[in-house]
Design goal:
sporulation; Similar to spore coat protein; Spore_coat_CotF-like; mainly alpha; virion; 81% helix
Length: 97
């Protein structure tokens, strides 16, 4: 079975991979806007960046909430998150066998 076929049957694992990638991207977006905000000298640009930063934070929260609700992310339980990450690594390794 090819990796593409395995991913098609992966179900929740596939959804979790997509959600995790979205969460990582959302975090990077928040950081980028925060840095840009501290670097600008224009009050007009600063206001635009603040609005975009607020939207990025809201998007991050929505993604994180979705992942928590669907037991993909355990933000408040480090031990459980580490165990979950270990299981994901094992599943990922199975996909590439």
């Amino acid at each position: 079975m090819s990796i593409t076929e395995k991913l098609k049957t992966a179900g929740k694992t596939r959804d979790e991979l997509i959600a995790t990638e979205l969460l990582v991207s959302a975090k990077a977006t928040v950081r980028t806007y925060a840095v840009a905000l501290t670097e600008t000298a224009s009050s007009e640009v600063r206001e635009v960046l603040k609005k975009q930063l607020d939207q990025a934070i809201d998007n991050h929260a929505k993604i994180a909430d979705y992942m928590i609700k669907n037991e993909m992310y355990y933000a408040h339980d480090v031990d459980k998150q580490l165990e979950h990450d270990k299981e994901r690594i094992e599943k990922s390794l199975e996909l590439v066998k």
